[in-house]
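User:
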Amino acid sequence: MAKTYRQTLIRRVGNVVISRAVSLGIAPSYYVLLSIRGRRSGAERTIPIRLMRHDGQEWFVAPYGVRDWVRNARAAGEAVVRRGRRSRQVRLVEVPRPSRRPCWPLTCGRSR
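Assistant: Predicted structure:
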């Protein structure tokens, strides 16, 4: 079961700080900015997120369950990933539940 997510003042400030660090290219290398079109408004939404890499694939993991960015990603099917001055267009594919297993050790901080 996913952890409960609460948007506290500390989290909001933390997101602003890490977003700025990623845009400057000074945050840890596993953080990126993910920009997705809103499913209803069509406005671009940008969040800082960890990009997990495993066996040559990249994974965005939703540790707090289905949040708005996940719903937007499902609707859009594509996004822009940015880090510093570099950006790239990516296609988003939701992985079926049984196939998600390889990324779990990555999210828990343990190696396989």
